Amino acid sequence: MKTNATASPLKITRNRLYTLIALGAFVVLAIVADLFFDAFTLRVFNLCAIYIVLALSLNMLNGFTGLFSLGHAGFMAVGAYVCALLTMSPQLKDMNFFLMPMVPWLRNVTIPFLPAIIIGGLAAAFVGFLIGAPVLRLRDDYLAIATLGFGEIIRVLITNAQPITNGAQGLKGLPRFSTTFTVWIAAALVTLFMVLLMRSSYGRAMKAVRDDELAAEAMGINVFKVKVTSFTVSSFLAGIGGALLGHMITTIDPKMFTFMLTFNILLIVVLGGIGSISGSVIAAVVVTILMEVLRFLDEPLNFIVFKTAAMPGLRMVVFSILLMVVVIYRQRGLMGNKEFSWDMLTGLFVRKGRKGGTNV
Amino acid sequence: MTLSLLLQHIVNALSLGSLYALIAIGYTMVYGILRLINFAHGDVFMLGAYVAFYGITLVSLPWWAALLIAIVLTAMFGIGLERVAYKPLRDSPRISIMISAIGASFLLESLGVLIFGGRPKGVPVPEVLSRVIRIGPVSTVVISLIIPLFTFGLLAVLVYIVNRTKTGMAMRAVSTDIEASRLMAVDVNRIVSFTFGIGSLLAAFGGIMWSFKYPQLNPLMGVMPGLKCFIAAVIGGIGSIGGAVLGGFLLGGIEIMIVAFLPTLSGYRDAFAFVLLIVVLLVKPTGLLGKRQTEKV
Amino acid sequence: MKKAVGFALLAAALAALVLACGPAAPKTVKFGVFEPLTGANAGGGALEVEGIKLANELYPTVKVGDKEYKIELVLADNKSDKVEAANAAQRLVDKDKVNVVLGSWGSSLSMAAGPIVKNAKVSAIGLSCTNPLVTKGNEYYFRVCFIDPFQGTVMANYAVKNLGAKKAVIIREVSNDYSVGLAKFFVDSFKQLTGDENSILAELNYNTGDTDFSAQLTEVKKFKPDVIFAPGNYTESALIIKQAKELGINVPFLGGDTWETPEFIDVGKQAVEGVVFSTFFATEVPITETSKVFLDEYRKKYNKEPAAVTALGFDGYLVARDAIQRAGSLDKDKIREAIAATKDFPGAAGMITLNEDGDAVKSAVIKTIKNGQFTYMATVEP
Question: C100 by DSSP, 3-state: which?
């Protein structure tokens, strides 16, 4: 990972070389994936990228600023809806809004994907700012429950605003803009942004707020401002992630953005290590793939000697247990709050080194 | 609005509010002592209702016997849950224990789907409890009259336990400072287990009452009541038993009156609970009765 | 990324080891069963799967040309969640290489699968997803049920012509696309039939998962309507009707096909006596020979009355099987064409003819509940 390229000045060239090789290998992998993977594998591969964006955005709050937020699905919904409504053509909108005509000022707007997704992110950021300004005065569990509440409120509003959002009917037929390159470029940009942010004075201020609010305040950090900024930026990234997700599945509806979605992202952040960028990235990939690989658990299991009946739901049981085991026995998750570095691999097996190294 | 309609709305509000209050007490007990939002409370609630249901249908117990057995079993389960999921994290950051609670909640829900099946079940409500009572223009069901009695009865009992018994004193001590109470020879583990037992017992009781009033069961039935009652507990001042009851009635009242006076907003009903929560938290972060140390567990 | 891929490979190898899949029969046709087995819609998913499985037991093979193939059901849980639904559908078409997809309960989940089956050119047959959007603009998505606009009209007609209703109140499940859509079509049709723009006195809302409806129902009391139309999930609807009776509201309740599940009566008990709703088929008047077979076998196997969507699951399977036989090939496009050409196919829930949108045009049945049983009232032709 590029994190350490400058962090250890002595090995600067070697580490930078590794990073470049890893990056190059990954770009090749992405191209190979896009060209040769079958659609299912490619979908999971791309979903990994989206979950990287989402996990990083949640980790920014939970891990780096120490704000436990459970309302992420709400911001994703804002991003997804704004972006979708801006990119859909009037004809497509007419097809979707078959129950109630859409408000005309929005019906006729169609803009390209790039500005649309940025506006979607900004809209989510704006909502985050509006919500953050008051609720960030709360602490810990109160904040968690208040953000959970806002996530629900956003969903209820979207459900009821039928002339704008098509309500419970949802939107279908969104143009499929979330291609392999779009999502991975987004994931790379967000990762890079997080790395740079965490090295900047802002990032350090966030960590200071997380570790000790009072001490941070005493050091002259404007704690409230840092919190609101972090919350707003995190909402922006969540909005981007939501928009990417919407344009990948090509259909969205309010029921998609329930607490369940936040839970999935939280799972990734916790498993990867609260406060670790590389942890989130690795966990996003692992969890997304595991979710699919473990699908066999829901089917009848055949242990050669004996067979079990199909047990739909077993997979979720496994995931819940996994989450609890990690929290109880390895609280820091995969990476703790450390970052991946090439130096970390020096003492490890070569095999392990290769494993982690290609995770950009 | 005519007087008879208004009266009916008030009766509805009291009946819903008392049920919220009943469940909120359990939340507040647990939070008061461990500072832990027990996200799994709603799922323990679901479990209690299912156990009672199977007691009535599979084992053909009389409903009151099924109720008692379900409450005891669920209380034991709650104690076990605390041991496994929360106790190892007692000294960890609060975020960890909250994540564990969320995990426990999802685990119970998925297990519910796995064991009880996803399809809802109709509850055989005892005839005595489902009879309709009409007084003039106002009508209600027997169970809706019984629930407030239990709510206030339990309120009295718990306030007595917390304030007048030795265990209660220990509970208050643990709530104030775990380390210090350990030094004062309080068996912290026993007190925490006891509190969790009571909390789960209340959740199970609430779940069974809920299933008698709204006679259907499904593995996710605890999610919404769990959230709403948590909100009620926070509004009232979490940790305060009286506050939980007050919060429950307040939330029930507001939910009903919103629909009564602004029927076009009925679709936003769930959002109002959260709006209320956020407003209360911002105006008075400790909740309405949060400061009153005397009742704090 | 290599780690991820390597890991996936490792896990897949492990999975393959654990699940010695039994002797792989080479001659199989795969039907993907794309249903919510967990999550909020698990109940509905289970009902449809029952029907599909029953059909599979009765008709386990399909003749393609002169070869007899075994039909294998591949279950994929879409977890009542759109992201998962898209993954599950993609998995079915890509990994499991199914020939046909059946499902899903819940229109929004079906919509998530829409673009995937379209891209892969694998035909999908919706069973009970009544939202018009599912098949719109997607020539690979079909369904064996009628759609909401028709159903709304049927009930409005019944309200006005049979009950002589002039004023109605609507109770909608605002977070449920099915309920919102059906309510809208009922309202339009009701206004037209009564010739009165103000014939709908109020539209009250609730959310999925709500249990207390006393406030909404007390409002209904104020309006004194002739009829209440309350389409929605069966548990919520049963609770609404039960609470209405407790409040002394004795206005007839009308609803839609979702009500026809045993749980509706199980939860509502006495209170749901006399409610009227439209649905897909009636057990009393077996419409076709297939209905008889379905009913007999279902009763024998489960010892209870089937739900309407179970019959549709049964039908979806049969339509797919029939189309493959008619196509005489496992070619994707031939299968698609054969399904699209389905005409007067005798399904358990009535004769199925698919129109140009891929929606079934078929009769609706009006039912009531008498003595705790779903009771047939009338058949309405399209």
Answer: strand
Q: Interior CA angle at A316 toward A311 and A320, to 5°?
A: 135
Q: Tell me if chain C has a CB within 8 Å of the CB of B211.
A: no
Residue C213 token pair: 């409806």
Dihedral sign for Cα atoms in the order B144, B204, A313, A266 = positive
Chain C residues whose beta carbon lies within 8 Å of the beta carbon of residue B139: 246-248
Tokens 């909250």 belong to which residue?
B98
Rounded distance between C-alpha atoms, residue B64 and residue B60, angstroms: 11
Average of pLDDT values for A131-138?
A: 85
C115-130 burial, b for 16+ CB within 10 Å, e for fewer? Answer: bbbbebebbbbbbbbb
How near does any CA of chain B get to the CA of C46, in Å?
8
Q: Using CB atoms within 10 Å of the CB of residue B99, give its burial: 0 to 12 exposed, 13 to 18 middle, 19+ buried.
A: buried
- Token pair, residue C321, equals 């099987």
Q: What are A231's two structure tokens?
A: 């919350």
> Is residue B9 within 8 Å of B193, Cβ to Cβ?
no
> Which residues have a Cβ under 8 Å from the Cβ of C114 and sit 6 or more positions away?
A172, A250, A251, C124, C134, C138, C141
Query: In which residue are the tokens 């002169």 written?
Result: C66
Structure-block tokens of residue B217: 């069961």
Domain C149-279 class in CATH? alpha beta
Q: Please check whether residue C222 touches B, CB under 8 A.
A: yes
Helix or strand holding residue B192 (H, E): helix B188-213
Summarised one tens digit per residue, pLDDT across range C21-63 is 444 445 789 999 999 887 777 778 888 999 999 999 999 999 9
- pLDDT bin (cut points 50, 70, 90) of residue B27 is confident
CA distance A235 to B171: 40
The full DSSP string for A37-83 is S-HHHHHHHHHHHHHHHHHHHHHIIIIII------HHHHHHHHHHHH
| Structure tokens that stand for A244 in this block | 């990417």
Residue of chain B whose Cα is closest to the Cα of A66: B95
pLDDT tens across A139-158, in order? 777 888 889 889 989 999 99
Render pLDDT for A162-196 as a digit per residue (tens, 0 to 9): 889 998 888 988 888 888 989 999 999 999 999 99
CATH number of C27-146+288-362: 3.40.50.2300
Q: C303: buried, middle or exposed (CB in 10 Å: 19+, 13-18, 0-12)?
A: exposed
Domain ranges of chain C: 27-146+288-362, 149-279
Tokens of B254: 């507001």
Q: What are phi and psi of A305, to 5 degrees?
A: -75, -45
Residue A194 Cα, gap to closest chain C Cα (Å)? 19
If we measure between CA atoms, which residue out of B102, B42, B46 comes closest to residue B226? B42
Residue of A nearest to B269 (CA): A156
Interface of A with B in 3-42 (CB under 8 A): none
Q: What is the pTM of this model?
A: 0.87
Look at phi and psi of residue C157 and say left if phi exceeds 0, alpha if psi is from -120 to 50, else beta.
alpha
**C-alpha distances in Å from residue B29, one per residue of B43, B233, B239, B296, C70:** 16, 10, 6, 9, 59
Assess whether pLDDT exceeds 60 at residue A266.
yes
User: How many whole angstroms from its chain centre is CA C130?
Assistant: 7
**CB within 8 Å of C136: residues ≥ 6 apart:** A95, C357
**What is the amino acid identity at position B13?**
A
Q: A41 CA to chain C: closest CA distance, Å?
A: 8
Structure tokens of A202?
Answer: 């802002």
Q: Which residues, in sequence order, are CB contacts of C340 under 8 Å at separation 6+? A: C139, C142, C354, C358
3 state SS for B34-78: HCCCCCCHHHHHHHHHHHHHHHHHCCCCCHHHHHHHHHHHHHHHH
Find out whether B226 and B45 touch, Cβ atoms under 8 Å.
yes
